[in-house]
Amino acid sequence: MPSSAHDPAGKAREPGPDDTEELSATTSPGTARHDPGVQHDLDAQHDAAAARGAGHRPPAALPTMTARHWWVPVLAGVGGYVGTVVGIVIALVLSILGLALQGDSDEGSTTDRLNGEISNATGLDTDTSGLRWILSVPFQLAAMAALVPLRLILSFGGEGASAGITVPQYFALACGILTAWLIARKLSTRMRVETRGVQWLMAAVSGLTWAALALVVTALTVLRLDVPFFASDIRVRLTALGGGLFPVLFLVGLLSVAAALNVRSTQVSPGRIVIGAERSTPGVLQVLRPIAVQFAVFGTVAGLGLLIYAFVEGGAPAGFSALFWLPIAVGWLFVLSLLSALTAGGAATSLTGLTGRSDVFYLWSEGTVPVWAVVLCILLALVSAVCAAITWAHVRPLDARVARTPLAWTVLPVTYFLLGLLALWLLRVGGYASGGMVGSSNAVFSLRPAGWTCLVFLVWGVIIELLARFVVPAFMHTLPRRVTRRLRGSERSRGRAAVVASAAALGGAGLAGAGLAGVGTRAMPAPEAPAATSSAQHPSAEPTATTAPQDATAAYSGPHAGSGDETRVLPSYDDPGATTRMPAQRAPMDPATKKRIRLIAIIVGTLILLAVLATVVFSVLSRTVFGPDNQAEDLLRSVTDGNATHAAEIANPNVSSGQRALLTDDVYGAAQNRISSYEIKDTTIDGDRATVNATVTQDGVTTPVALPMVSDSRDGLFKSWRVDESAGVPLYQALTVEVPAGVGELDVNGKKVSVDTQGQPHTVEYTVLPGDYAVGVSSSSKYVTYGGNQVAEIRAGSPSPAPVMSFQPSFTPALEEDLTKQLNATLDRCAQSTEFEPEGCPFGYSVYGDDEDYRNPRWSIQRYPTYSVSSYGNQVTFTTDRSGEVRLDYQYNEEYDDEPADWTDRDTTSSVSGYGTVSVSGDELTINAND
User: Which of 154, 530, 621, 710 has the least C-beta neighbours within 10 A?
Assistant: First the structure.
């Protein structure tokens, strides 16, 4: 591409070896000396061209075309489609290889696992090893290279459902483009392309062939299956036929083959459209080169990094399947690194509840991207932008017409703006589901660059334009020659660009409008002049001949020519001198100006660097020192250390003081199997709310937990985060204890915890942190026990219901012993009675007849009874297990008359038993016996 004789500041600079110059007039009385013989021949050629005048017309397209001109593009189109399919096959083979390398013998073969994945996704039993799958799937996936969705259509019982997903396959498309380009370039080696019309007609034939072949093959290879489902079959179709298949592939084939045939064109001079575009918008024909350089620099480094990350994090399956997802992932990362965003329409992780929902993701808004990776991506974006600026400074024309054309400032920014609009389409991944698969409603999702990406790209275009004009010239010629040569492009492309720039500088639009009078003629050689010194802009360039100063807008001979006899003709592509002639040059830039520009560049660069560093530092501090994960880590650290009091201060459990009774350092610190370790995984921030995802290890089991955070205040410039207790804290669990009647104290982990004493059993609920809680009920009586400690195992993130501890009273052996002692003491007291029927005693003797015939009763206990104690509710009862025996000795009067009495000794035995209730009050027993 030609370089200007004027630097960005408007100062003259010396010519480089690739700069162009205006063509000198063919005749002029005051021209420099020249060879008369050469001049005579050139005059003769010019006269012949002038004689033809406006009546000359370029050859028509069709008459100049042979059979070879038709079958070469056809083969290129076929090759383009075959190359696309081969790219898909390569990607599939590598993906299957990754699954095989990652496979487990217990899970079956790779095909079995692939069938299982498809079955889990669709609910259908499939066999991907069948010939029908092998002959269908590669062609359907190849159609996805045209940005059409792969659709799954189900029909069952007169009802239908469908789902589709769009994931552009750019690797396969690149394989097809390369194949078509190589075939067209190779087969057209000895072919003459007389006009641009022939070139584009051949390219159109190739595009039609590619698109039509893809359309036919995709339609013929639609996968059709009948899958058994209960007593019927489900008809399944897998197809990628879509409305965009034909036009997209036609455009791809058209441009690919047109680019390949560009070198075969025999047109000797630039056309009217080319000259007009270059003159009105200088540099428009070279504007794609800096963009390609920027994306190549960024994509190479970023693609390698993503591939390494995929192998490390996802293993062999993720790494070997990179050909399917890596190109679009690099595009997304490019957008994010240029400080734009991605928009997830609905929710990219679910097909439910998507209507009207949209989330925006920046490079730094997702905790899955480490801070160091964010910094590296932004720095890589800056480096690639600088490379684009260096490229643009080398290939854009910087002659006087640039200063006269305000649109020259807009060429690169507007191109970046259009690239941002194109990225919204090219970098979109989406899907949909409708019909029976999702109920009666439809669902869609998409992930693409945010709508304002085009504006972000526009800003970057302005920055690169400014760098190319004011910063890059200060150091662009200090770069190695090899780097400079690669940035500029091939010698041929630079030469052709120089010819176009020269034609535009000569007012070539007017020349073209005059009927291309100079087509087929060569421009006159410049008059001899003293050789210039080596250019300061290109220190390695050889000295070039220059001409005397001339008016770049001088007229040419023809209907639109100005006054005078001077005549200029279009420079030709095959003129070896066209790339060495230049307009008159100004003096080189003085050192003071260079120093001033360099100082301005340093200041601007420093300000930009400081702004980027400030943004990065602010983002890093916002996510670390002042980030939500900092508060979450403080909470998890307190729980791990057994500091329940501090944990409750960080995350308020929002319960009453009574329910917080176990959230003390003494109780929780003594708990067994607390959380032993934790790890913060990532943080998701959505405005003033965030979710910190972490894992905790408890009793050897690792469990994921999500801690909700909210920011409702600021700490200076930064958001102040706290745990959002209103959303629920997964670390807190509930523990319910049924407290028996009369109990006023619990024993928890060896610590005394007071409870309200009530006459009836009641329930107490506590809020606790993860751990094991040994709970027991303390008894104030030696006669009653509530059993040993019960252990509640509280686990983090456990969805199970809250454990309930119930304590039932039971009696100690002392109760039965003391009860028996008291009852036996009562029997002993009764045995001392001298009455036949002792009052309040469980035994007695009823006399028959005259009471005076009985005397001297003496009671003795032969065997004490045994008792058992039981309880029903709050009532304690006792009963006789084995009856006792009591003996009565007495005298009986056997004389029936009054005198004299005849007393004889008699005795009798009877059983002794009893039952009743017992009241326990502390260590006192109150017996209510029922004889």
Answer: 530
* Mean pLDDT within 462-489: 78
Rounded CA separation 18/578 (Å): 10
| DSSP secondary structure, 22-83, as one string | PPPPS--TTPPP--HHHHHHHHHHHHHHHHHGGG--PPPTGGG--HHHHHHHHHHHHHHHHH
Q: Would you call the peptide bond into 813 cis, given omega within 30 degrees of 0 as the criterion? A: no
Say what the alpha-carbon torsion angle 328, 334, 339, 340 is, to the nearest 10 degrees. -30
| SS3 of 332-398 | HHHHHHCCCCEEEECCCCCCCCCCCCEEEECCCCECCCCHHHHHHHHHHHHHHHHHHHHHHHHHCCC
> 3-state DSSP call for residue 813?
helix
d(CA 622, CA 276): 52
Sign of the dihedral defined by the CA atoms of residues 285, 290, 291, 295, in that order = positive
Q: Measure the CA–CA gap between 176 and 139, rounded to whole angstroms.
A: 13
CA 28 to each of CA 503, 555, 566, 609, 733: distance values in angstroms, whole numbers, following the listed order: 20, 13, 7, 55, 100
Residue found under tokens 């504006």: 455
Q: Which tokens in the block code for residue 448?
A: 């693409």
Tell me if residue 272 falls in helix, strand or coil.
Answer: helix
Give yes or no for a contact between 420 and 457, defined as CB atoms under 8 angstroms apart: yes
From 127, 140, 259, 135, select the one nearest 200 (Cα to Cα): 259
Instruction: Dump pLDDT digits (tens) for 421-452.
Output: 999 999 999 888 876 544 445 678 888 999 89
Tell whether the model's pLDDT for residue 772 goes beyond 80: yes
Tokens of 501: 């720039």
- In 3-state terms, the chain is what percent helix, strand and coil (to 5)? 45, 20, 35
- Give the tens place of pLDDT for each residue, 230-288: 556 678 888 888 888 999 999 999 999 998 888 777 666 666 777 777 777 777 778 88
- pLDDT bucket at 649, cuts 50 / 70 / 90: confident
50 Cβ neighbours under 8 A, 6+ residues apart: 517, 557, 567
Per-residue three-class SS string for 414-450: HHHHHHHHHHHHHCCEEEEEEEHHHCCCCEEEEEEEC
User: Which of 708, 749, 710, 701 is closest to 730 using CA atoms?
Assistant: 708
Q: For residues 494 and 18, what is the distance between their CA atoms, to the nearest angstrom? A: 7
Q: Taking CA 532 as the corner, what is the angle to CA 528 and CA 538, rounded to the nearest 5 degrees?
A: 130
DSSP β-bridge partners for residue 200:
none
C-alpha to C-alpha distance for 423 and 445, rounded to whole angstroms: 18
**What is the token pair recorded at 203?**
């390219």
Q: How many CA atoms lie within 13 A of 617 on its CB side?
A: 7
Distance CA(854)–CA(893), nearest Å, equals 7
Amino acid identity of residue 856, one-letter, is N
d(CA 221, CA 239): 8
Is residue 247 within 8 Å of residue 211, measured between CB atoms?
A: yes
**Cβ-contact 579, 495 below 8 angstroms:** yes
- Three-class secondary structure of residue 755 per DSSP: coil
